[in-house]
Design brief:
The complex is a heterodimer of chains A (66) and B (707).
Chain A (H helix, E strand, L loop, with lengths): L4 H13 L6 H20 L5 H17 L1
Chain B lengths: L1 E10 L2 E7 L8 E6 L5 H13 L1 H4 L18 E18 L2 E20 L2 E5 L3 E8 L2 E4 L2 H11 L5 H4 E3 L13 H15 L2 H19 L5 H55 L2 H33 L3 H24 L7 H11 L14 H31 L4 H42 L5 H53 L1 H43 L13 E4 L5 E4 L5 E2 L1 H4 L2 H19 L4 E5 L7 H14 L2 E6 L1 H4 L3 H7 E8 L20 E3 L18
Parallel strand pairs in B: 3-14, 3-15, 9-13, 13-14
Antiparallel strand pairs in B: 1-2, 1-4, 4-5, 5-6, 5-7, 7-8, 10-11, 11-12, 15-16
Helix pairs in contact in B: 6-14, 7-13, 8-12, 9-11, 9-12, 10-11, 13-14, 14-16, 14-17, 16-17
The chains are: A mainly alpha (66), B alpha+beta (707).
Chain lengths: 66, 707
């Protein structure tokens, strides 16, 4: 069990929202990638995580850089 | 997660018992009414065993087989628990998170082996989870079953969600050291706030970012990046090593503190029977006292003895009465000049001089006649003179003696001597009694271990000091390395920004590090802000439970409760004085604070899971009892309470209002002392009837004191 997902999402919004270095597009991408990684972590096989996270990062990185 | 129903088979007295639970959000309370020894705790254990398995719930020697079913021919008993529950799962549906609620049936079973009515072993447990869908029941693959089970209620939270009025006190009980209590509280907080999974995510993101770093292909940047990464890695390794040592030292410190407490308690136990060394000194003093008393007694006897022998005063005392009479007679004779009587020597002198005082001739020839007369007189007087001589001698001997004075003197000495003998005899006896008691006390004290314990205490104190000192050093090392690591990370981040402009790998690194920072910051916020929220909720719920409102009444005994950053549960009295929850609170308030902590934690975490509580309202009455129940219902998402008839007394209307299900468990063995009717069963087992908290039937009707 982890902290309830809605709680995590609310904290994620707060955290990313308060980041002044990022523009809104970057914030959206970062929010999506963090959300996806968190869901993966709470539901998936921990040993497979790094490789799955790596693929997600690669997928979203281009959008993040704009 | 919400519990729907459970079915126990051969789980001790629960031979074939079905429980069902209210999962409605309006009526989230289930009350299972059961008297003592009626399967409340066993039912709770059954649920925990089903969810967490033997290794997390049961002691090895805790036998599950129903005792009365074991006969000489029994070789095995199969035990099974089935639990049906719902579990919410968030799924990513085309980019948006959606809640999916699934229903599962968990079945755990095991076999216990018996030989000649002696328990041998519990065979390997098996469990399976089936997903219940509208299309039918599907068995989950092992990996998925593990995931479902882990997401239901993790083992670390079993003490939070499955508790009873007594074991909830584990968070504040005095038997545990501060460190142990903190560990219990922090484990519950960290599990419920999901810090573990967040830390793991952060770690995975670091691994991913480092792998991307190795793929940087620009030679200049690669070397510089490699150097910075190596530096950071080195700092991280040092920090991790120090943190591991810190954990180890903290454990050693906690262990040392616990052992010191235990050793001191053992020393106090021995000393409470008496300090053998002090008792030995006391014994020696008493023995010296006895020796002196005996010497004094001997002296007193000697004095007494001397008073009784060769003592003129004793002689005078003894003859005084008669002697005084004799002296009076002798004095009388003396006054009459009859003593001393000197006529014979005078007459003999006259005969020798042959002439009388009167001039008469007393020569043998011419004065023969007179001479013969005198001789005759002398002869006649000889016998009476002998007596008179004795009387005269006696007279001269005793006339100078003061018999009264001598008697008084002797009596005085005799009294003093007797007093001394009595006194020293008594004190000898007192010393002997005291010596006997001391010897008895000493013989009861087994302090052969005392010296060892004192040495152990010193050695543990040393170990504790060394641990504390090393912890300070490690704290400094970690801070210093963290600062250096942060500086290097800033440099690397700046370099990675440059790499990002010329290579895809740079953007991968950048995003992974950014995501990692997000998770790290959430962890920090959870630790600080959420802990603060738990503390605030704890305070609100607790004060409400016990009916304390310090803002409106300055006589309030308990003014505040707090969960500190160090995971201590602290209660405050008037003027901000700290109270020890374990010692300064009454039984009801102690239960209330632990329930308030559990409820605050579950509320802040927003985790949905059932609170299954056995006898939470024991030791409570009146307002506090009602308030604790109302708050528990209000704050929990699903509440399953095992309540005795006494606990229900006074809270019936609250149960009316909030309970979705109420039924009763009965132990037929309670007939005829506690049950009115004999229940028609062939063996020992708990039976269920549908009677709620206000009704009874032929099965559950109990004998009241009044009846």
């Amino acid at each position: 069990m982890s902290i309830a997902i809605k709680k995590f999402l609310s904290m994620l919004d707060q955290e990313i929202g308060s980041d002044n270095e990022l523009n809104s597009d970057q914030k959206n991408v970062l929010r999506k990638v963090c959300e996806k990684i968190y869901v993966l972590e709470t539901t998936g096989d921990s040993s497979q995580m790094p490789s799955q996270i790596r693929e997600d990062i690669k997928f979203y990185a281009q959008d993040f850089e704009g | 997660m919400k519990l729907i129903k459970a079915h126990f088979k051969n789980f001790r007295l629960l031979k074939d018992l079905k429980l069902d639970f209210s999962d409605s959000s309006d009526k989230k309370l289930t009350v299972i009414r059961a008297a003592n020894e009626t399967g409340k705790t066993t039912s709770q254990y059954g649920l925990m065993w089903g969810l967490f398995g033997s290794k997390n719930v049961l002691r090895k020697d805790y036998v599950l087989s129903p005792k009365d079913s074991i006969t000489p021919s029994t070789t095995s008993v199969e035990i099974a628990v089935e639990i049906e529950f719902t579990q919410s799962k968030y799924v990513n549906n085309r980019g948006s998170m959606e809640v999916e609620e699934n229903k599962y049936r968990l079945k755990r079973l095991c076999t216990e082996r018996w030989r000649n009515q002696v328990f041998e072993e519990r065979s390997t447990e098996q469990y399976s989870i089936h997903k219940i869908t509208s299309n039918g029941v599907v068995k989950l693959a092992e990996a998925e079953a593990i995931e479902v089970l882990n997401n239901a209620i993790p083992v670390a939270l079993k003490d939070v969600y499955f508790t009873d009025g007594d074991s909830a006190l584990a968070f504040i009980e005095a038997g545990a050291t501060q460190g142990v209590k903190r560990a219990r509280v922090s484990s519950a907080v960290e599990s419920l706030l999901g810090l573990e999974v967040l830390r793991l995510t952060s770690k995975h993101l670091t691994v991913v970012a480092n792998k991307f770093s190795n793929e940087v292909d620009n030679t200049d940047y690669k070397n510089e990046h490699q150097k910075l990464s190596d530096k950071i890695l080195s700092y991280e390794e040092d920090i991790e090593e120090s943190q591991l040592e810190m954990i180890d030292k903290n454990e050693q410190l906690i262990k040392a503190i616990a052992e010191i407490k235990s050793v001191r308690s053992s020393i106090e136990d021995i000393l409470s029977l008496g300090d053998k060394s002090k008792l030995s000194i006391a014994l020696k003093n008493e023995e010296n006292g006895l020796r002196r008393a005996k010497e004094n007694l001997a002296e007193a006897y000697k004095n007494s003895s001397s008073l009784a022998s060769k003592n003129i005063n004793l002689s005078l005392f003894m003859v005084s009465e008669l002697a005084v009479k004799g002296i009076n007679i002798l004095n009388g004779l003396s006054k009459k000049n009859q003593l001393p009587k000197l006529n014979i020597p005078i007459l003999e002198e006259l005969l020798e001089k042959e002439k009388c005082f009167c001039g008469s001739d007393l020569s043998p020839i011419s004065g023969k006649e007179k001479r013969e007369f005198i001789k005759h007189s002398i002869h006649d007087s000889v016998e009476s003179d002998a007596m008179q001589d004795a009387a005269t001698t006696l007279y001269y001997s005793v006339r100078s003696q003061n018999f009264n004075e001598a008697s008084e003197k002797w009596l005085e000495k005799y009294n003093a001597s007797t007093k001394a003998v009595i006194g020293f005899t008594a004190s000898s006896k007192e010393y002997l009694n005291s010596i006997d008691k001391l010897n008895d006390d000493i013989s009861k004290i087994d302090d052969s271990n005392l010296q060892n314990l004192r040495e152990l205490e010193r050695s543990l104190d040393n170990a504790k000091s060394k641990c504390s000192q090393r912890l300070s050093e490690l704290d400094y090392i970690i801070k210093s390395n963290t600062e250096k690591k942060n500086d290097a990370e800033i440099s690397r981040k700046s370099l990675e920004a440059k790499i990002g402009k010329v290579s895809n790998v740079g953007s991968f690194i950048n995003l992974s590090r950014k995501a990692k920072d997000v998770f790290e910051n959430i962890i920090e916020k959870l630790k600080k802000e959420e802990l603060k929220k738990v503390s605030e909720q704890l305070n609100t719920i607790f004060l409400d439970m016990i009916g304390s409102d310090p803002s409106k009444n300055n006589l309030t005994v308990i003014t505040k409760a707090e969960l500190t950053e160090d995971y201590d549960i602290v209660v405050y009295g008037p003027n901000g004085n700290k109270l020890d929850p374990d010692q300064d609170l009454n039984g009801a308030s102690r239960r209330a604070i632990t329930l308030a902590f559990i409820l605050a934690l579950t509320k802040v975490s927003e985790v949905e899971a059932p609170n299954v509580i056995d006898t939470p309202l024991g030791m409570m009455a009146g307002y506090v009892k009602q308030s604790v129940l109302e708050n528990t219902i209000k704050e929990g998402s699903q509440l399953i309470l095992f309540l005795t008839h006494d606990e229900i007394n006074g809270v019936e209307s609250i149960i009316d209002r909030y309970a979705g299900k109420v039924y009763t468990l009965t132990n037929p063995a309670h007939f005829p002392k506690m049950l009115v009717n004999k229940i028609d069963v062939n063996d020992s087992r708990i039976v269920r009837c549908e009677c709620d908290h206000r009704h009874h039937c032929e099965i559950c009707q109990r004998i009241t004191k009044e009846a």
